[in-house]
UniProtKB/TrEMBL annotation:
Repeat as UniProt keyword: no
InterPro entries per UniProt: CUB_dom, Sperma_CUB_dom_sf, Spermadhesin-Link_domain
Domain of life: Eukaryota
Alphabetic keyword roster: Disulfide bond, Membrane, Transmembrane
Protein name: Kringle-containing transmembrane protein-like 1
Keyword Disulfide bond attributed: yes
Record SUPFAM superfamilies: Spermadhesin, CUB domain
Domain CUB: 44-110
CDD domains, per the entry: CUB
PANTHER family: C-TYPE LECTIN DOMAIN-CONTAINING PROTEIN, CUBILIN-LIKE PROTEIN
């Protein structure tokens, strides 16, 4: 049984969650009750057509899976621009992040 499907003792908040030291543990509310659980979000690729958004790698905040080639297509109308703000980037040795312009081989980010 993993920690996502059972309650853990309050003392677990001082320890890494479920064997993944990069994940955060819960907090206390006014009733001094606490729940500690693991959480993972993210996807491997997709289309973004909204005016703003956030992209997470698969299994974020844990390590992303091996042998993944995730492609995100960000689409806006021709009179708009795309601004990319990278707040957290941790890439494994041998992996890379490439940003290119659609219908062009011109690389926008080394």
């Amino acid at each position: 049984q993993n920690s996502a499907s059972r309650r853990l003792p309050i003392t677990d908040c001082t320890a890494p969650c479920g064997g993944d030291e990069s994940q955060f543990c819960g907090g206390q509310d006014g009733s001094q009750k606490m729940e500690v659980f693991e959480a993972a979000i993210g996807a491997c690729g997709g289309d973004v057509k909204t005016s703003e958004g956030v992209i997470y790698s698969p299994n974020f905040p844990g390590p992303y899976p091996l042998d993944q080639n995730c492609v995100w297509n960000i689409q806006v109308s021709s009179q708009n621009i795309i601004r990319i703000n990278i707040e957290l980037l941790d890439i494994s040795d041998g992996d890379s992040l490439t940003i290119t312009e659609y219908r062009s081989s011109r690389q926008l980010l080394p």
